[in-house]
Amino acid sequence: MAAIHIGISGWRYTPWRGDFYPEGLTQKRELQFASRAVNSIEINGSFYALQTPKRYAEWYTDTPDNFMFSVKAPRYITHILRLRDVHKPMANFFASGVLELKEKLGPILWQFPPSFTFDPPLFEAFLQQLPTDTQQAAALAPEHEPRLNGKASMQTHGKKPLRHAVEIRHKSFAVPEFVQMLDKHGVALVVADTAGKWPYIEDVTANFLYLRLHGDKKLYASGYTAEAIKRWGDRIDRWRQGKQPADAHLVDPKRTPRARKQRDIFCYFDNDIKVRAPFDARQLLQRFELDKHLATEPGKLPEPGVLP
Questions:
Q1: CB under 8 Å to 203, separation ≥6 — which residues?
Q2: Residue 14 maps to which CATH number?
Q3: How many domains is the chain built from?
Q4: Domain for residue 176, yes or no?
Q5: Per-residue pLDDT tens digits for 86-131
Q6: Does pTM surpass 0.85?
Q7: What single DSSP character describes residue 112?
Q8: Is residue 73 part of a domain?
C-alpha cells in the first residue's frame, strides 16, 4: 500500500504554545513533540536561509523512526535569482546538510512567487539541473561557494531517489506544455489549496502527490471542516490507488498519467495563523487511522519517557 505522509509546514510558531504544544514543553522539545503528533513535517526554515549539517542531523535524531521530512528549497533560487545562474546556489543548498536527513528525507519543494511567469526554456533548464538521487546531490555539493568551506556536508548516506515538487502561483503555468514538462522529468505539480487566490491544478505528473493546504476560505487562517477533511481524504484515497478523482481539476484533460498501482502522498497543512494546521492534520490522519501509530496528542503532555 502506498505511504501516506500527513503533517504541518514548519513547527516553531509562538501561538501554538499552550495550545497545540502543552504548557511546560520547552521550545527545544517542540520538534520532538510535533513529530510524534503527525508523521511528516515540511521544513520551511530552509526557504529563508541555508541551514547547517549539524541542524539537519539534530532534526534527524529528534524524530522517530519512519518519520519523513520534506524540505523547502531556498527562495534565493526561486524568488531572487528566479532560476538564472543557479548552479552554485543549488550546490550550496545540497551542501548545507539536507542529505543528513538520510532515509527521512522526502521531497524537495520548489515554490515560485506569484510574479514568476512560465518561461519554457528557463524552466526546462532548471528541471534538467535537479539531482535525481542522493548520489547526484552529493556530487553537486562540492561545487558550493567558498563561504561554505568547512561548513558543508557531502555524504550520501547511501543511494536514494530524490523527489522534487513544484508549487506555482501564476496562471501562465496552467498550460499543457508545463504539465508535460514536469511529467517528462517525474517532478510533481503541487496541489495547492489557496482559498482561490492562486491556480488550483490537480494534474498528476510524478509517482507521488504533494499537497499544500493553506486554507479553503481564508488564506493561511481558516480551518477545514469535517466535510472538507472528508473530501480531501477521499481525493487522497484515489490518488494513492494510482487513480485520480472523477472531478479532478486538470489543465490537460486529454493526457493520461503514467499507469501506477499506487502513489505515495505527502500532504501539509499551512493554515497556521489561527493554530489550525496541526489539528486539521490530526483529523486527516484519523481518516486513515494513522493517528493510532503516533505517540502524542495535541495539547497533552506525553507519558514520561515517550520523548527522548
A1: 179, 189, 248, 250, 251, 252, 255, 257
A2: 3.20.20.410
A3: 1
A4: yes
A5: 999 999 999 999 999 999 999 999 999 999 999 999 999 999 999 9
A6: yes
A7: -
A8: yes
